Structures are given as C-alpha cells and as structure tokens.
Amino acid sequence: MPSPQNLTQKLISSHLEWGALEPGAEIGLHVDQTLTQDATGTLVMLALEALGLDRVKTEVSAQYVDHNLIQADHKNPDDHLFLASACRRFGIEFCAPGGGVSHPVHMQRLGIPGKSLLGSDSHTCAGGALGMLAIGAGGLDVALAMAGEPYVVPMPEVWNVQLVGELDEWVSAKDVILELLRRHGVSGGVGRVIEYSGPGLVGLSAMDRHVIANMGAELGATTSVFPSDLRTEEFLSAQGRGEDFRALAADDGASYDYTETIELSEVEPLIAKPSSPGNVVPVSDVVGEPVYQGYIGSSANPGYRDFAIAAAMVRGKHTPPTVSFDVNPTSRRLLLMLIRSGLLADLIGAGARVHQTGCNGCIGMGQAPATGTNSLRTTPRNFPGRSGTREDRVWLCSPETATASALAGKITDPRELGRQWFDLEAPRGPLLAEDPYRHPPTSGADEPLEKGPNIGSMPTLDPLPKRLEVRVLLSLPADVSTDEILPAGTRVLPYRSNIDKIADFCFEPYETKDGRSYAEAARELRSHAVVAGENYGQGSSREHAALAPRHLGLRLVLATSLSRIHRANLINYGVLPLLFKAPEDKDAVSEGDTLGLDTARLAPDRDAAIEVAGKKTLRVAHDLSERELEVIFAGGRIAEVRNRVTADRT
After folding, report:
1. pLDDT confidence of residue 498
2. Which strands, in side-by-side order, build the sheet including 353-354?
3. Which of 277, 321, 378, 478 is the most exposed place for a label (fewest CB within 10 A)?
4. Parallel/antiparallel/unpaired status of strands 116-119 and 93-95
C-alpha cells in the first residue's frame, strides 16, 4: 500500500517530470497553465521572441493588462498593443485593460482544481485557493514553461495550518493571514508550502481563501494550498463552470513537516504597521492614529464581499473631508455587480473616489498618499515607497478596519461599532455576458509583433568568466525588497520594455560610497558585486530587479540569504548568488572592496573561496545545483537553452 500523501504531495506528484519528493532536492514540474501581467509580461514575450518559439505548449496561457494602466503618454498603450500582438503570435489569451486584476479574474474564468499554474507575478499563489498548484516565478521561468520546459524548484517542506472554529464579527480572512505574519514574519514560509485544513475551512468562501493564499507570498512561501471542497464547487458553479470542479484533499493519515493550529474565534482585527507586512499588531494597540487614506481593493482583497462590507458600513454616512476614501474595483464583472446591487452608489455617496479596475495604487500607479500621512490599505505589501510616495506610511488591514478608520478619520477597531448584520451575499445569475479574453487565432505565423519606439529586444548577456575580479558597489541591509532594487510606480514601470532606460532606477534608495547613484557608478565600472543581509530580494517577482543590474554589469551577489524568486531570477540572467557562511561574515566585506573568485572551481556541495583584496580570504557557501551552475556559466537561461538545443540537433 502506498503511504498516505498530503494534498501538496499529491499535486506535486501528479505534475512531477523528474526528481524526488525530498525537501530541498530539485524537482521539475509540468506546467498546465501560465499567467502573465503587463509589468512582467513584456519581458516574457521578448523572451519568447528570443527563444524563437512558434506557439505555446501549455493547456492555456493568459496575459493580463492590470498594472500599467495610466496612459500619460505613448509608452503604456504601446506596450498594450505589443502584448496583444504577442498573444496573437504565440497563442495566448489576452485580457485587455479594464478586464481586471489577473489573479481573481484567472481564478474565476480559467482556474481548475488540480491543475498547475505558473505566473510571472509573486501573488500567483492565490490560485491555491481553488486547490491548484499555483506558483509565482520570474518571467523567464514562465516563458520557458510556455515553451514546454519543466519548472524547476527545490522540493518544499509542507507546513500544515489547521483552522478550527469560526471568525467573530468584524474579523475576516485578511486577519487570518495577518495572524500568521504576526507569528512568523516575512521569512517564516521560506522553503515551504502552506497547506490549510481543518473544520474552520467551512466558514471560508473561495474568495476568502484567495485572500489568505495571496498573502502567503509575504511569508516567503513557495505557495499555499487549500482543499477543493463544497465551497470550491459553490464558487465554480457561480461562475458557470461547475463541470470543472474536482474534489481534492489530503489522504487520511498524511504527515507534514510542520503543523500549527489557528483558533479562528481567537483571531482579532490585526494591522501591519509601516513598512513591512510582517510588522503586525492588534488594531486595538494603535487606535487613534490619524488617517489620511482608506483604500479598498487589490489582489489581496478582490472579492465581492470585500467591497460589500465597506459599502454596507458607509451607507448613509460620509467620510471626513480630510480622508481620501479610495475604492479600486478588481474586475469589470465586479464593478457591474456593485452597480447593479446599488453598493457603488453607497460608496460614492459616502465620498469614495472610484478608480478603474486594476492594480492601481497597490503597485504605485496612482492613489499615492501625502508625505508622512497614514494610508490604511487592503493591499498585500507596504514596503517603503511602494505606494509611489517616498516617505510613505502604509498600513495593511482588512476592509472592515480600513473602512471604520476612514469613517472616523483615525485608526479604529471595527469592533467599536458594535454588533451589526450585513447581507454580503453576492447577486446570483449571469451578470456579464462578455468574455474578458481576446482569443488567439489558430495560427500566429503571419502575426507581426507590434513594437513601439520604447520597446527593445532581450539584451545579449556574456558568459561568466573563469576568474572574477569585481568591486563591491553597495553593501545592503537585511530584507531589501525588489521594490528597492528596481522600483515600481508611474516613473519607472513604463520603461519595462526598455532595459537600458529602466536600469537608471536601480537601487534608487541607496548611494555608493562616494555619493553617486548606483546606475552612474555601475555604468562607469561595469563588472561589479553587491553584498546584502538576510532575505535579499523579497517581495515582487519582477525580474527587472535582476536583469537591469545585470545589464549594468552586476556579476556577483553575496548575501546572508536570498528570497526564492529573486535567487532564481539572478541565476536566469547569469548573476552568481553566493552566501555568507555566517551572518557576521558580512562585516568582513565593505563597499569598495575588490573580490576575487576562481569561478572555474565552483561545484555543487562545495564551498568557495573569495579573496577580499588586502584583507583576507573568506569561505562562502552556495546551494547551486549542477544545472544552475551551467545556466550561470552560459550567461543565463536563454543562452543555456539555445546551447542545449543546438547540442541536441548535432
């Protein structure tokens, strides 16, 4: 008799192309579906062009335009046309601007329990709400999956979170994931899949589960997984896709690497203080702080209920004139539901500023708060400056807390409003006949790629030399996010198809030892290194944070630890990631030091020796596999795939 498996093991086993289910070992996974969005999708399409791909080999691939919606000049709309043409060329479903945020729309229209989903957005893990194996990755990994390559990832440990009881009034799914962040911080899920189970699941709808699975990314988890049960069937039937339902659960007697319990009745309203999703405290600890902005929406709280509770709370009331009450509907379908139910009128009547359907302020595309003011948001991240305001103070909370605080003009525990009852049931029946996707033609051979003047091609990267001599340009602290390495926002993201230009913004919050910008110093020096503390590269999956510094000459990152997706992105673009053997070793390397390394001696499971000129020789570690070393030596994944294909043909 085979041993009982947990749900994560079942999903991985059913997609395993090679490797073993041993934590830490490399595994290759077959990918059924892919998801790309416009902030990362342009590089994916340029990679497909560089690979010479004819048509995608997945069951379905979908491209969403949800991030870069502000059309201040030609750059964003040019990219939209380019993405639409690439979808016709390569056989990809295209969701145009206004269709909605990728994760909830994909879940509603294309998500299927038991399927694997790889997305060039770190919050792709939201698909785990449906019982999918949904993983966020760098765009190049997604492009290669679209070309039929397996997705390679270390086999994760499985962390079982048992939910028991039920949530009290004024407490919702956002508070559940904030409770996990309160307990474990932003690196508590690194190397793990979070698998939810227990009797408390019955009280969580599929969209509630989406809220929790989405923000598993903030714990650093590979993904999150929920069983596919009656609540999943209920959700799919409401989308008119009941035939796609499939029950999925762990076997009786399945074991886990870690197990933890959350008693839902003991969860209280929580809030993540500026400026980290892991900086979580009870709302009751910070009541009275003045509020400038209350923000409802984003992929972290995208469901009808999240807007309905806000509308019910403000009905017949009005926010103070000092508060910006921002409402960001997450899809055209949701917006229509809010209109037809009358809830949009309640929100507007209370002073809400309603914005177009999309990611908007979550990625720094509008709704930036005033300097030094408190912005309470239902978004998944509050890294410094991500909102678009350099000196921002963004707090993460539930729709209940954000709305109660917006009404009061100060941070307010929603439980202060007393016991109330609201009808949060979504309207039944078809509300939108329109298909949000433009379907690709049968053949794309005659479809040209439409490239505006701001759109380039994938840069050519040279192989790693056998000997590195590089100067350290920056010494960085712990928990540096990709928003700090390569910012988002209206100034920067319009250049995502122009690598040479977007590189100007690399490491903007930091200066080199002589007071220059990183980009200026790197362009002069070319080949160089950066050193960093723990959890380097946390946050967004945007591969520009690896490719743009590589374009400026970054060859080596030496850190205490690296986030999963950014580590993979560095390797994909030929940047060598090495690890300090102990945190205190970071003190042995300073900005301006020259590091020497014989890269030809690098081998799996073997430490390396770095010469710190004029100081000492430092033993450093790495966890690179033979495959990953081959990619770095080739100059990146595209070059490695080309070399392999050429070798196979000969």
Report:
1. 92
2. 280-282, 270-272, 393-396, 374-377, 293-297, 324-328, 353-354
3. 321
4. unpaired
Low-confidence residues in the chain, pLDDT < 70: 1, 429-433, 645-650
CB-based contacts of 648: which residues, under 8 Å, 6+ apart? none
Apex CA 585: angle with CA 464 and CA 466, to 5°?
A: 15
Side chain identity, residue 12: I
Give CA–CA dist 180/216, Å, rounded: 9
Q: Give the phi and the psi of residue 535 in degrees, each rounded to 5.
A: 60, 40
Separation CA 250–CA 5 (nearest Å): 6
pTM tops 0.85, yes or no:
yes
CB atoms within 10 A of CB 317: 12
Q: How far apart are the first and last CA of the chain?
A: 45
- Strand order across the 157-164 sheet: 223-225, 192-197, 157-164, 258-263
Task: Give the span between the Cα atoms of 179 and 216, in whole angstroms.
Answer: 12
The neighbour count for residue 91, using CB atoms within 10 Å, is 23
Bridge partners, 135 (sequence order)? 118
d(CA 645, CA 650): 9
| Identity at 32, one-letter amino acid code | D
Determine phi and psi for 582, rounding to 5 degrees: -145, 145
Residue where the block lists tokens 């019910």 = 312
Residue 446 CB partners (closer than 8 Å, separation 6+):
none
Query: 67 and 100 in contact (C-beta within 8 Å)?
Result: no
> Which amino acid, 202?
V
Return d(Cα 637, Cα 572) in angstroms, integer: 5
- Among all chains, which residue has been given the structure tokens 């959350």? 262
Q: Tokens 């997305």 label which residue?
A: 119
Phi-psi region of 322 (alpha: psi -120 to 50; beta: other; left: phi over 0): alpha
Helix (H), strand (E) at residue 152: strand 151-154
Contact criterion met (CB below 8 Å) for 192 and 162: no
Query: In this predicted structure, what is the pLDDT of residue 540?
Result: 85
CB distance 637 to 458 below 8 Å: no
Identify whether the C-beta of residue 574 lies closer than 8 Å to the C-beta of residue 463: yes
The helix (H) or strand (E) run that includes residue 628 is helix 626-634
pLDDT at 648: 60
CB 296 within 8 A of CB 374: no
Q: How many CB atoms lie within 10 A of CB 32?
A: 20
Q: How many residues does the chain have?
A: 650
Residues near 377 by beta carbon (within 8 Å), at least 6 away in sequence: 293, 295, 298, 361, 362, 387, 394, 395, 396, 397, 402
Q: How buried is residue 157: exposed, middle or buried, by Cβ count under 10 Å (0-12/13-18/19+)?
A: middle
Q: Which amino acid is at 281?
A: V
User: pLDDT tens for residues 28-56?
Assistant: 999 999 999 999 999 999 999 988 899 99
Alpha helices in 419-543 (DSSP H): 482-485, 499-502, 518-525
Question: What is the distance between the alpha carbons of residues 152 and 321, in angstroms, rounded to a whole number?
Answer: 52
The alpha carbon dihedral of 439, 443, 449, 450 has a sign of: negative
